[in-house]
Amino acid sequence: METVELKVNYVSAGLDDPHYQPTLSCFVPKYYDEMGRRNRGAVLICPGGGNDYCSEREADPVALRFSGAGYAAFVLRYSCVDKKFMTALLECAAAVKYIRENAQEFDINPDKIFVMGFSAGGHLAACMANLWNSQTLADVLGCQSEMLKVNGSVLGYSVILSDPKLTHEGTIANLLEHKENNELREFLSMDKRIGKQTPPTFLWHCADDGCVPVENSLYYMAQLSANHIPFEAHIFPSGGHGLALCDETTATWEGHIQPRAAAWSELCIKWMNDEMKK
Fold first, then answer.
1. 10 Å Cβ neighbour count for 8?
2. pLDDT per residue as tens digits for the range 122-153
3. Are 95 and 124 in contact (CB under 8 A)?
4. Is 41 exposed, middle or buried (0-12, 13-18, 19+ CB in 10 A)?
5. E-assigned strands of the chain?
6. Angle at alpha carbon of residue 272, lines to 107 and 44, rounded to 5°
7. How many CA atoms lie within 13 A of 238 on its CB side?
8. Which terminus of the chain is more exposed, N or C, with fewer CB under 10 A?
9. Rounded to an integer, what distance in angstroms lies between the CA atom of residue 247 and that of residue 201?
């Protein structure tokens, strides 16, 4: 595993320098001549944490699970705590650019880059899925928008909505720097940003999530359907929030062990494998 520092010119995007160096941890299977080129898929993982921190439970353990399934996995540790939108999104876009630029070295298919996020990280992943073609991102990172394209997204118990009645308010408030900005709040509702640029999506959520209401995934699914974007979704009846891998690998208490919801990772890998064939 190698960790690289991502360089972002925040000032050129009209943002304050967060004085934080975003990093990308790379879990890339080693190349062996005996096995030859594998042309792997890549998955960029955005941990949750309410935009207060990056949860380690939703970081390296998840990367190892997907690396074990044959994917090159990358964990983005992005700027948190009152870091105005688009700070973390620029960092996420820089990570996608880095992965695609080094696709040959990593033995990756540059047209099969997935973004995955959990909770607040799911909001970041949804932003990347829907806004990758933003001219601002391309201009700041000095590239064509196609370099930033994601080819699929995986959203786990994700913050999607910005309506105070349905969102996880801390996640959205951090992006607003805890200021009243109704225009930006409305823009940050990712169900409203879905369009032809949005890639195929895999979603999972628990119906009894008391932190991020399941409506976040349900509204997103409805708009994916309305826009004819392919998706697969799994709503598990119970389990709550913050489950990560739902087993002993990432559990910190017995409530994190949810055998039924734990099926999400295997289901997701099968979905990604199918997307790889397209």
1. 21
2. 999 999 999 999 999 999 999 999 999 999 99
3. no
4. buried
5. 2-5, 23-27, 40-46, 72-77, 108-118, 152-156, 201-206, 231-236
6. 60
7. 4
8. C
9. 23
Q: How many whole angstroms separate alpha carbon 84 and alpha carbon 162?
A: 15
Q: Are 41 and 115 in contact (CB under 8 A)?
A: no
Single pTM value for the model = 0.97
Lookup: tokens for 110: 């540059």
What is the residue type of 59? A
Closest CA to 221 of 244, 200, 237: 200
- pLDDT tens digits, residue range 145-177? 999 999 999 999 999 999 999 999 999 999 999
d(CA 149, CA 111): 9
Amino acid code (one letter) for 86: M
DSSP label at residue 71 = -
- The percent helix, strand, coil of the chain (3-state, each to 5) is 35, 20, 45
Number of alpha carbons in the 13 Å side-chain half-sphere of residue 34: 1
Token pair 């360089």 is found at 7
